[in-house]
Amino acid sequence: MTSESKPAHFLQNIIREDLAEGRVEQLTTRFPPEPNGYLHIGHAKSICLNFGLANEFGGQCNLRFDDTNPAKEEEEYVDAIKRDVSWLGFEWAGDVRYTSDYFDQLHQWAIYLIEQGKAYVCDLNAEQAREYRGTLKEPGKNSPYRDRTVEENLDLFARMTAGEFDEGSCSLRAKIDMAAPNINLRDPIIYRIKKMAHHQTGDKWCVYPSYDFAHGQSDAIEGISHSICTLEFEDHKPLYDWFIENLPVPARPRQYEFARLHLNYTVVSKRKLKQLVDEGFVDGWDDPRMPTISGLRRRGVTPASIRQFCEMIGVTRSDSTVDVGMLEYAIRDDLDKNAPRAMCVLKPLKVTLTNYPEGQQEMLSAPGHPVREDLPTRELPFTKTLYIEQEDFREEANKKYKRLVLSKKVRLRNAYVIQADEVIKNDAGEIVEVRCSVDLDTLGKDPADGIKPKGVIHWVSADNNVDCEVRLYDRLFNDESPDVGDKNFLESVNPDNLEVLTGCKAEIGLAEAQPEKGYQFERNGYFCRDSKYGTPDKPVFNRTIGLRDSWAKEQNK
Ligand code: ATP
Ligand code: MG
What is the pLDDT of residue 6? Predict the structure, then answer.
């Protein structure tokens, strides 16, 4: 899945060397989401990287749920994450794995550390513990419970595990160094009491390992050779290494960090995306405005375009923000090549062809795609009454307006040339109908008088079409960096991020449109049928993206 032309990135170089020099026999990576929300476009970068490297180097990539916090996790998220990874086109090695599969082993290793005098039960409450921890500038202080004997610690940890103590009353901490400059090494908590059922292990446990204690050891258990994570975990590496060095683990994973994806006009944080859902700014995690994988899918974005986007942005160790226009470019590029063409009138204006027989319908045919001959030809019913776009007609206009003007001609796309003869208005003075004459000698050829109309407009039969609703999405945020600084990102939500049009008229073939399959509605953009709303005879179409490509234009300046 890597393009041949692109130079190798630092992780590809590291892996190639590790394999060449025999430090690693087989590349094993993993994608380790916490099931506390749906995956977003940032996760796609990590997925494409981890699975992509495994594919490239003939290794394997595991899908492991890092499920150490039952308070925030749910089975719904587990299911959504599996669906999203598969949809992106990747296959994990073997069964789905869970950190909770290793809770027994992790618990034994916690006891092992106690036995080695390297972990102790501490009764400081959260506030006291914070005080004892010190700051970036000042060292911490030893907990008064730090010198408990091995026997006492074993007993207390057994009683913690048996549920004898209340949540928050004590925890198990690694005994490392309260004066360490790296705060992560100041006797971090490795087990906490949480009297809470877990989505995988049920009521079995009332103590749970911390993420930091579980993460590296889970990698070791799975034989992960290259444990790839984002830069914010760089400071945790000395702690992960400490655990690995002080425990009888079966393997030694090596951690490598890369920069997270930041996208402008977007937030990529499950916590914030959850807030948008919970506070009703959007209609669920898969709302087509959301930068989640499921939202993008429902909007009509293809997995190939997300993979292409991840390829384009590359992998580095320096944080930067990517222009969302680059994602839009990848989406448009894929749809342009693959989406069948169709016509849909968003804001219909009635056109009556006065010289066309009442009740007659002829079937015209149109190509499925301008160059893709494998896409089937469309059948377009042509009748006396049609719809065109309101904005495609004017009573008067200058020469720049290449559409239908009173007493002028225009070509109907894939059909005949018509001329506007008369305008009908309602009492409010609004145009409700245009009466035209059709030149039936113009199918696939110029009019006999040799005067070629300048404009081509789209249309749909008024008698034989699909009545539908169309949802036009705009950016979810109108601030380029909605969550940078002290801002409340919710205040940057674009109030005009959705326009719903009803009574739109699509060509009849779109009655069969499959949900999430992209079409180009000629002159209007790329659309797909919504998978959640609409009925069989009244579909809802989502605009995936407009036709215009402002990003590429910027690049060519
Ligand atoms: P969030 O802040 O959205 O909750 P997270 O890092 O806590 O993100 P995890 O479920 O722990 O989410 O992430 C799983 C994997 O995806 C991790 O390896 C993480 O580093 C990676 N990941 C998460 N967000 C991004 C991002 N924006 N860019 C690249 N990788 C990411
Ligand atoms: Mg997280």
Answer: 81
